[in-house]
Structures are given as structure tokens and as C-alpha cells.
Amino acid sequence: MCLFITSFPLADSYREQLIKDSEFLRNDKRMGTELVDKLVLQLNRIYPQILNDKEAQKFRNLGVPTAIRLVELLSHLQGKGEEACYEFYRALHIHAEDVYFSLPTRIHRRETTDPKWTNTADDLREKFVLNDRGPWFFLSCFTVVVGVAFLYYHSEGKGLGDDTRKVLGFTTLGFGTQAKEVLISYIDDCSRK
Questions:
Q1: CB atoms within 10 A of CB 14
Q2: Taking the mean position of all CA atoms in its chain, how far away is CA 89?
Q3: How many CB atoms are closer than 10 A to CB 156?
Q4: What is the dihedral of CA 50, 53, 56, 61, to 10 degrees?
Q5: What is the rounded CA–CA span in Å between residue 17 and residue 88?
Q6: Which three-class secondary structure state does DSSP give residue 148?
Q7: Residues 6+ apart with CB under 8 A from 111
Q8: Digitized pLDDT (tens) for each residue of the chain, 193 residues in all
């Protein structure tokens, strides 16, 4: 895991980022008892070298106010080093994305990589939408393709009749230029047979 962290240069190390984000995390109301417990359990169960059982019990002690436990957890992780800070960010991303993406270092990183905020979540989502015409459009296109395949299959050994040629000829009116060329060349090939 450490190789992944050090394999690309960061403007700030994860430890430095956690130092910068600590004040925000301490003051954020979303960092409640339940979230702190989830983070401690994640770090303890998956990475016991970061938080052993005794330390996890200390940070999960409900007799101590959550704000104090959070401050102690953050300073403990900063003392543990890069990998511990990285795993804290990973756990925070898993359990509280809204908190993770509102961290000052994350906001700063987004602003420096995309200063005009042109790369918003809506824009990213729209890049992967092929069309917004819905399932009926897909069904109609699929039906046309199946119809052409059906005509091709049934006219394989014999030439196309006049009626079939007319239907295929009129069908090309609704297609783009490439589809028209394919259908017209198919009609020409079948007429020559």
C-alpha cells in the first residue's frame, strides 16, 4: 500500500493534508459519534497496525466527548505517518463522501485542477450518457435492425421481390447517409442476383 502512495508525487503528503484538514474536521458537525466510531473500526479491523485493539477502545470510549476523541485520533494518526493518514482519508471517503469532498484540501485540489469548475458531477455524468431518448428509441432501432436481418435471412437464396425492394428503398429515407448507402448497396446486390 505504501508503494501506491509514494508512486506519484503529491503537492502535499497525506500527513500534511490531515494537518490542514484537522481544524475543519474538528468543527464539522457531521463528524458525530457514529461516524468517528465507524472510522475507528475501519482502521482497527482492516489495518490493525494503524490502530490496535487497545487504541481503538480508547478512541471509541463513549465516556469521552466525541470532539476530544476526534482530536486525539487525528493527532495519533499524524504521529503514525503517511500510511495511517492515507487510510484515514480512505475510510472517510467510504463512510462519509460528503465530508470527504468538502475537506479544504480536496476543494483546493479541485480548484487547482479545474479552476473554472467546468468539471462538475452533472457534466461528468452526461459524458457517459449515450442518448437521452429513452427505451422506446432503442426498441424502435432494434426492431428496424431485426426487420432488415429478417429480410436478409429470408431472401438469402432468392432475389428480393419488387415489394421488398420498395420497402427497403423507403426505409432508407429515415436513416443517416451511412445506413442509406448500406441498404442501397444491399438492394443493388440483390437485384443483380
A1: 22
A2: 17
A3: 8
A4: -170
A5: 11
A6: helix
A7: 117
A8: 443 333 333 457 888 988 999 899 988 888 899 999 999 999 999 888 888 999 999 988 889 998 999 999 999 999 988 999 999 999 999 998 888 988 888 888 777 776 555 555 555 455 555 556 677 877 888 888 888 777 776 665 555 555 655 555 555 455 556 666 666 666 666 666 6
CATH 1.10.533.10 fits 14-114, yes or no: yes
Give the C-alpha distances (Å, rounded to integers) separating 171 from 11, 68, 161, 191: 59, 73, 15, 17
Residue boundaries of the structural domains of the chain: 14-114
Reported residue count of the chain is 193
Note the Cα 98 to chain centre separation in Å.
Answer: 15
Residue pair 87/17 in contact (Cβ under 8 Å)? The answer is no
Backbone angles phi, psi at 87, to 5 degrees: -65, -30
Alpha carbons 86 and 89: distance in angstroms, whole number: 5
Contacts of 8 (CB under 8 A, 6+ apart): none
The pLDDT of residue 106 is 86
- What Rg value do the Cα atoms of the chain yield, rounded? 31
